[in-house]
Automatic annotation (TrEMBL):
It comes from Marinomonas transparens. This is Methyl-accepting chemotaxis protein. Residues 1-93 form the Methyl-accepting transducer domain. It is a multi-pass membrane protein. The keyword Zinc does not apply. Keywords: Membrane, Transducer, Transmembrane, Transmembrane helix.
């Protein structure tokens, strides 16, 4: 019985020692975690700030992209209007050319008519008594 009591006492002492070591380790871990906690909180805060910055950058990028698309669309519309204007100017230029040719032709016809009028006048004056 003494042996059993001695073994029980030894086992109890070892068990108590183990529990004390676990408690000491747990206390040490708890202190370390308490010491790290401000760093973790600061990291979380920094992470939130970075997330907000990235969100702002994304919003700015989206807005810039929308403006670039607007400018591109406006440039396309202006290009179409410029092309249409150039076509109309070309049509007007052709009309002016045709009008100039018609005026030139009319001038020639008037010259021919003038000659005929002179010839007719001479012919009529030949028959005057």
């Amino acid at each position: 019985m003494r042996t059993l009591a001695s073994r029980t006492a030894t086992a109890t002492a070892k068990f108590t020692e183990t529990i004390n070591l676990v408690q000491a380790d747990t206390e040490s871990i708890a202190k370390t975690m308490q010491a790290i906690l401000p760093n973790v909180e600061e990291s979380v805060s920094s992470s939130n700030e970075v997330t907000e910055m990235l969100t702002n950058i994304r919003a700015g990028s989206d807005e810039t992209l929308a403006r670039i698309r607007e400018v591109s669309h406006s440039a396309e519309e202006q290009n179409k209007a410029t092309q249409s204007l150039a076509e109309h100017v070309e049509e007007i230029s052709n009309m002016v050319k045709e009008t100039a040719e018609a005026i030139s032709s009319s001038r020639k016809s008037m010259g021919d008519l003038d000659k005929l009028a002179i010839e007719l006048h001479e012919s009529v004056s030949y028959f005057k008594v």
